[in-house]
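Exercise 7. Given the components listed, write out the predicted structure of the assembled complex. Treat all entries as one system.
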Amino acid sequence: DAKTTQPPSMDCAEGRAANLPCNHSTISGNEYVYWYRQIHSQGPQYIIHGLKNNETNEMASLIITEDRKSSTLILPHATLRDTAVYYCIVRVSRSGGGADGLTFGKGTHLIIQP
Amino acid sequence: DAGITQSPRYKITETGRQVTLMCHQTWSHSYMFWYRQDLGHGLRLIYYSAAADITDKGEVPDGYVVSRSKTENFPLTLESATRSQTSVYFCASRDRLGSYEQYFGPGTRLTVT
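Answer.
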């Protein structure tokens, strides 16, 4: 699986958009980009994933560059409850197979300021 | 309750004791996983299971035993607990035909004295 690089920490004002970058310059063609977050003392929570097109769901948007070497997770209107560690993970998605788990790096500690 | 649950949520035990951490999911997901989380290491995979009676080692399996007789349960046993196994343990599951969208339990904080 490709390695990812994320800033260790970021601040964002409440109500503003939080943009979390992830570099995955060695990503291969069949690898997806996944984002998870972990709020303090809780289990990780899936946010979103994508292959090459931009994706949006009720939680966030994922913007993947055309060369797929980097991506940005966008929380459009950050709230205090979005304070968490955000993990960017690159992984081959093998539908119907592949039971091995996810590899979590150190992630980005996002702090939402009131 | 629907979802994935872990018990106990907190456990203190002594070195050398056997401890079993329970994990139960209600989605009938094929895949289940055990991770441990320590400061400075992030989450590390201990064991995983693709279906009932099918288990395999992850990154850090030494000192742990798992079983999966029923799809919904995936207990993790520390046969002889050591202080180095003091950690927060997370169970997770995912659907066979899905992507790597894993659902995590709330965790068990284990302290070995």
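Discussion: Chain A touches chain B through 23 residues (CB under 8 Å). The beta strands of chain A are 9-13, 18-23, 31-38, 45-50, 55-56, 61-64, 70-75, 84-92, 108-113.
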